[in-house]
Amino acid sequence: MSAFDALRIAGSGMTLHRKFLDAVSDNVANINTAAAPDQEAFKERFIVAQANDYGSGTGGVRVAGAAFGSGEGKLVYSPDNPLADDEGYVRLPDIDLGTQMTNMLIAQRGYQANISAISRATDAYQAALSLGKNL
Amino acid sequence: MIGIGDTTTAALHAALSGLAQRQRVSSDNIANVNTPGFLAGRTDFESNLRSELSSGDTPVVGGGSVHRSLAATRTDGNNVDLDSETVIATETGLRYQLALQALNGKYDLLSAAMRTQ
Amino acid sequence: MTVNPLALTTGYGVGVSSGYRNNGVSNSIPAGDISGMLLGGISSTGTVGAVGGQPVGQVARTADGSTFADLLTGSIGRLQGLQSTADGYAKQAATGDLQDVHDYMIAASEAKLATTAVVTLKNKAVEAFNDIMRMPV
């Protein structure tokens, strides 16, 4: 543990929440991506977060990988779509816009909270640096 | 003269120039966050300083080295991570202040010892 | 680096002993402000020999038998310890291995205070000596 570990840990939190936000915007951008019924629909993307040395040691968080939702999606009747099959169905992703908007808020708040942790840690260190200034 | 220019002051001086170099490289990285093919720069003066201090030599000022980070790049070939650059810049600023305070403290001590009033 | 304030400016060695010559009046060493704080209080007074055969130059001692010279030497030794602690932390701060910022700040403040205290003592002692030397015999 070095003196400025709080900064590094909050920085890892910032990176994670930014990647979370990236995944959520990817999902929202592809919410209407159609596919032919015999192919997989666009799969919702999740970020797997993992704590670094949980309980002891370095601390912080990292992205352990990405996980994908189901590719089944939902069949929607849309006969004018060029990808539609003989019965007029296309496969759209099964992504709920409400959930994605909530996740966006969560990611934003998490990002801001980590930024505030960094600025508080910086203030604390600068206060420590003024110890004994008027001796 | 006694005490002026011993290993500790030289080590702090070396740390100050190393940290200033890191600050410059970090601003360079942030300025090039959207440049295709740009690899982030990383500096290192600590390993040189540590080995000089443990072997008892006087630390050399300006012994920091710059190398390119080999972290994963995005699709445009750029691998600058804005969040880590921000944290590195903040931490470097704080460590710079700490080293300045330490140097100040040493000089203060010397001048307090020389007072005759 | 260690600083020995006495050697630095006055040319005296460490340890100022005081042998007072007087005519039989008992002396009490003033246990004032900085001396008192730093040296833990001088609790007893010493009497110096009266006229008529008593040895002159007997030194005042505290309750546990140490003289002012011992106390001064002890505080200078402690000062060197404090300065090297602060130096060690400063080297750690330079290489980035410092665990807590306040460790260094506290050690540096203690070293500065101890240096100021010892230097003030030294200055007062030198002033007192000069005052005495100026006395017309």
UniProtKB/TrEMBL annotation, chain A:
The keyword Membrane does not apply. It comes from the Bacteria. Residues 7-34 form the Flagellar basal body rod protein N-terminal domain. InterPro entries: Flag_bb_rod_N, Flagellar_basal_body_rod_CS, Flg_bb/hook_C_dom. Keywords: Cell projection, Cilium, Flagellum. PROSITE patterns: FLAGELLA_BB_ROD. PANTHER family: FLAGELLAR BASAL-BODY ROD PROTEIN FLGC, FLAGELLAR PROTEIN. Belongs to the flagella basal body rod proteins family. Pfam families: Flg_bb_rod (PF00460), Flg_bbr_C (PF06429). Residues 88-131 form the Flagellar basal-body/hook protein C-terminal domain. This is Flagellar basal body rod C-terminal domain-containing protein. Transmembrane segments: none annotated.
UniProtKB/TrEMBL annotation, chain B:
Residues 15-38 form the Flagellar basal body rod protein N-terminal domain. Keywords: Bacterial flagellum, Cell projection, Cilium, Flagellum. It is found in: Bacterial flagellum basal body. InterPro entries: Flag_bb_rod_N, Flagellar_basal_body_rod_CS, FlgB. Its main location: other. The keyword Nucleotide-binding does not apply. The keyword Repeat does not apply. The basal body constitutes a major portion of the flagellar organelle and consists of a number of rings mounted on a central rod. Structural component of flagellum, the bacterial motility apparatus. Part of the rod structure of flagellar basal body. Belongs to the flagella basal body rod proteins family. This is Flagellar basal body rod protein FlgB. The gene is flgB.
Automatic annotation (TrEMBL), chain C:
Its main location: other. Keywords: Bacterial flagellum, Cell projection, Cilium, Flagellum. InterPro entries: FliE. It is found in: Bacterial flagellum basal body. HAMAP family: FliE (MF_00724). Belongs to the FliE family. This is Flagellar hook-basal body complex protein FliE. It comes from Klenkia sesuvii. The gene is fliE.
